[in-house]
Amino acid sequence: MSQNTVEEAVAAESRRPDDEPEPDSAPGEQEPGVGDEAPGWLSQVPYFLVLSTMSAGIVIVAAAHFKRGPALIAGSLLLAAVFRTVLPPHKIGMLAVRRRWLDVITFTGLAVLLIVLAWVAPQLSQ
């Protein structure tokens, strides 16, 4: 198929009239389950919680607290692993990168490595 043929088919599909609503439903009523979904931006709330916690950890590291900062970042990664494990795929937002088990293993592994880093890092005297 050529590019023009595909474009013509898509344009013809978009010009079709929508299906008429069934006559037995009242104009102001909705079917059960329709419109009950939360807005799309709510699926990004877990991502922003993890991102803000991680940002706070980075700020703490920049303030020369090399034990507290990585521990907070590790906590945010563990939070991401919990969100990825518990929440369904349509409510997880941008935390879903790969398959669920791979995301959970990656988040947990990075969190464990950061906890070890925070444990062995020397405390700087001020």
From TrEMBL:
Phylogenetic placement of the source organism: Bacteria, Bacillati, Actinomycetota, Actinomycetes, Streptosporangiales
Keyword Cell membrane among UniProt keywords: no
Listed name of the protein: DUF3017 domain-containing protein
Keyword check for Transmembrane helix: yes
Keywords from the UniProt entry: Membrane, Transmembrane, Transmembrane helix
Pfam families: DUF3017
Disordered: annotated span: 1-40
Ranges annotated as spanning the membrane: 47-66, 72-89, 101-121
